[in-house]
Design the sequence.
C-alpha cells in the first residue's frame, strides 16, 4: 500500500465537511494516510481530524496562511508534498481547490485529475471516473508520469460518514510552513454576501425548478403558477439566473444552493453536473424534458418526456387548481 | 491594455453523444460546434475592459483546423486579431498540453491580462487557466464575477477582482498585472456578432502557428461509457393530460409528497 496525503480545508477555524470525504477516498485507495491542514492556528481542527483512522495529522502553520491565497497555499504545500513523496494527493473539488490545486500540481509538475466522481484500484493502479459533456458520459481515466499524482473529488463522490475512525486519536503535529509573504501576489479582502438572501430554499419542502427549456422570461409565470399550485418554491439552474429571468438567490447548483426537499420538479433542465450536485439529494425527483437522453433522467424517480409547455398546464389542471 | 482571451470550440449543447469504436472518445466527426459558453463570457469581459480602458483584444485558440469557426466568431464580436495554435491532437489533449500550447502563443505577446472561461463544457477540467498562469509565471484568480482596473495606480495595485465563493459569498481580491483570470458565467450579458462585425472580421489578422511539441500525456482516458443508471426512473407516458393526471396520482398516493 502506498501513502496518501489528504489536503483538508478549513476557514476561520471551521472545518469543511468535504474534508471527511477526502479522507474516506484516501482510506479506500491507499495507506498510510497523512492529513495536512494549511492555515494559522489550526491545531484544534487537526485534533478533530485525528479521530479518523489515519497515520498522522499535520497542522501546516504560517502567519501568511491565515487568509487563503493560491500563492500562499502552493508555496506552503509544494515542498511538504515533494519531501513526503506520497503516491497520491487528494482534495475535495471545492472552489478553493479549483483555485490552487492545478497551480500546485503544475508547480510540482505532476499529473492531476479534477472533479472525479469515483476511483478504484485496478491492477495496481488507480482508475478515476469523471463526467464529460455535462454528465452525458463518464470516462475512466488514469494518470501517468512520476508520482505523486493529484486528484480532486466532486462533493458527494465519497461519503464523509464512511470514514473509518481510529481506535485512538491519530498523532497530531504542527509543522512550520515555508512561505515568503512578499511572493504572495493576491491580496484578499474580507468575504461578504450580496444583500439579498431572502430565500432559503433549503427549507422548502417542494421546489419547482426551471432550466433552459423554459426558453424565455415570459414563460416564468407558467412555472410560478405550477409552483403555487403545488405549494412549492420556484428555483432555477444557473443560466436562467445569469439571464436575469429568475433572481440569483433562487439558483440551485454548485454555485447556488444545495437542497434536499421532499419533491423536486425539474422543468426543461438537462441535468448538467453543476445543477445536479445541488439537488440530487431530493427525496422524489420528477423531470419533464423533451429530450429522452437528457442526463436529468438518470437522477429522476419519475420522468415525462415531452413539451413542458403542454405538460405543465396539464399538471396544473390535474391538480384541480 | 493588451488582453488575450483563450477560447475553446466545443460540441453544441444539444449534440447527441455517440461513443467511438475504441470507446476512448466520442464520434464527433459530424457534430455541430460552438464557442464554449464560459469562454464567451470571458471574451465579452475582455471587450468591455478594452472599451473602457483602450487597448487590444487577442483571441487565442488551440485546436484542429475547425476551431477557426470560434476564432471568426470572436473576431466578429469585436476581438482585434487572433492566434490559432493548430494541431489535430489538441482536440483531445489533456489540460497540460493545452496550457502549454496556449502559453507558447501568448508568452511573446507580453499581455496585461489573460481571460478564459472557468472550465469547458466538454471535458470540464477547470485546470487550463490556472496551469497557464503557472506556465507564464504570472498571478491568477478563478471564478471571477467582476473585473476592475484602476489605471491611475502603479502596476502592482491595478487589478481588483470579485471572486465567487460557495453559498452566495464573494470576495474582492487585489492583484498585480499581468494576471490570468478564469471567468464565471453571468459576469456580464453576452453580445452577439452583428453583420457589420462579421464583415469586419474577414479583414482581421489570424496568425496560425503549429502546436508545439506536446509534453508527455499526463491524463489518459481508458474508456468512455454512458453512465449506468443507479435509479429506476419510471417514465410516465401518454398524452400530456394523461401523463399529468398519472403524475399527480403517484405524487399524492405513492410518493406522498403532495396532499
Sequence:
Amino acid at each position: 500500500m502506498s501513502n496518501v496525503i489528504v489536503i483538508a480545508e478549513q476557514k476561520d477555524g471551521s472545518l469543511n465537511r468535504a474534508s471527511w470525504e477526502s479522507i474516506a477516498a484516501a482510506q479506500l485507495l491507499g495507506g498510510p494516510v497523512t492529513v495536512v491542514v494549511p492555515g494559522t492556528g489550526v491545531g484544534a481542527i487537526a485534533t478533530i481530524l485525528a479521530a479518523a483512522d489515519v497515520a498522522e495529522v499535520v497542522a501546516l502553520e504560517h502567519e501568511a496562511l491565515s487568509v487563503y491565497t493560491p500563492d500562499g497555499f502552493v508555496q506552503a504545500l509544494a515542498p511538504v508534498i515533494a519531501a513526503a513523496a506520497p503516491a497520491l494527493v487528494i482534495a475535495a473539488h471545492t472552489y478553493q481547490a479549483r483555485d490552487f490545486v492545478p497551480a500546485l500540481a503544475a508547480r510540482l509538475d505532476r499529473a492531476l485529475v479534477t472533479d472525479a466522481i469515483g476511483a478504484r484500484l485496478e491492477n495496481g493502479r488507480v482508475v478515476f471516473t469523471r463526467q464529460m459533456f455535462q454528465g452525458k458520459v463518464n470516462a475512466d481515466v488514469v494518470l501517468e508520469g512520476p508520482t505523486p499524482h493529484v486528484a480532486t473529488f466532486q462533493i458527494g463522490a465519497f461519503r464523509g460518514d464512511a470514514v473509518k475512525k481510529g481506535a485512538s486519536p491519530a498523532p497530531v503535529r504542527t509543522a512550520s510552513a515555508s512561505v515568503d509573504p512578499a511572493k504572495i501576489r493576491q491580496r484578499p479582502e474580507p468575504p461578504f454576501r450580496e444583500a439579498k438572501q431572502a430565500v432559503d430554499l433549503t427549507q422548502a419542502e417542494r421546489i419547482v425548478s426551471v432550466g433552459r427549456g423554459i426558453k424565455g422570461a415570459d414563460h416564468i409565470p407558467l412555472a410560478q403558477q405550477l409552483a403555487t399550485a403545488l405549494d412549492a418554491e420556484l428555483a432555477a439552474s444557473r443560466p436562467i439566473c445569469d439571464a436575469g429571468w429568475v433572481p440569483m438567490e433562487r439558483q440551485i447548483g454548485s454555485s447556488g444552493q444545495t437542497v434536499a426537499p421532499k419533491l423536486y420538479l425539474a422543468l426543461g433542465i438537462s441535468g448538467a453536473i453543476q445543477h445536479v450536485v445541488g439537488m440530487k439529494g431530493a427525496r422524489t425527483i420528477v423531470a419533464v424534458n423533451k429530450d429522452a437522453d437528457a442526463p436529468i433522467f438518470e437522477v429522476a424517480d419519475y420522468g415525462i418526456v415531452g413539451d413542458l409547455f403542454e405538460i405543465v398546464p396539464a399538471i396544473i389542471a390535474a391538480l384541480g387548481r | 491594455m493588451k488582453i488575450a482571451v483563450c477560447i475553446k470550440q466545443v460540441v453544441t449543447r444539444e449534440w447527441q453523444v455517440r461513443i467511438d469504436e475504441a470507446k476512448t472518445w466520442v464520434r464527433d466527426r459530424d457534430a455541430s460546434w460552438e464557442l464554449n459558453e464560459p469562454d464567451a463570457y470571458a471574451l465579452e469581459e475582455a471587450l468591455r475592459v478594452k472599451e473602457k480602458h483602450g487597448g487590444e483584444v487577442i483571441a487565442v485558440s488551440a485546436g484542429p483546423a475547425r476551431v477557426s469557426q470560434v476564432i471568426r466568431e470572436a473576431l466578429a464580436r469585436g476581438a482585434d486579431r487572433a492566434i490559432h495554435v493548430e494541431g489535430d491532437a489538441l482536440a483531445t489533449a489533456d489540460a497540460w498540453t493545452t496550457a502549454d500550447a496556449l502559453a507558447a502563443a501568448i508568452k511573446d505577446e507580453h499581455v496585461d491580462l489573460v481571460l478564459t472561461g472557468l472550465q469547458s463544457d466538454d471535458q470540464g477540467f477547470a485546470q487550463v487557466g490556472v496551469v497557464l498562469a503557472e506556465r507564464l509565471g504570472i498571478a491568477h484568480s478563478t471564478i471571477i464575477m467582476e473585473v476592475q482596473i484602476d489605471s491611475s495606480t502603479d502596476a502592482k495595485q491595478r487589478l481588483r477582482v470579485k471572486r465567487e465563493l460557495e453559498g452566495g459569498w464573494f470576495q474582492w481580491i487585489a492583484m498585480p498585472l499581468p494576471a490570468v483570470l478564469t471567468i464565471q458565467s453571468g459576469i456580464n450579458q453576452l453580445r452577439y456578432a452583428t453583420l457589420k462585425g462579421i464583415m469586419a472580421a474577414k479583414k482581421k489578422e489570424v496568425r496560425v502557428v503549429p502546436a508545439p511539441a506536446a509534453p508527455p500525456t499526463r491524463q489518459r482516458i481508458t474508456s468512455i461509457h454512458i453512465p449506468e443508471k443507479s435509479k429506476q426512473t419510471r417514465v410516465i407516458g401518454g398524452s400530456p393530460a394523461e401523463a399529468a393526471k398519472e403524475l399527480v396520482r403517484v405524487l399524492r398516493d405513492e410518493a406522498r409528497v403532495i396532499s
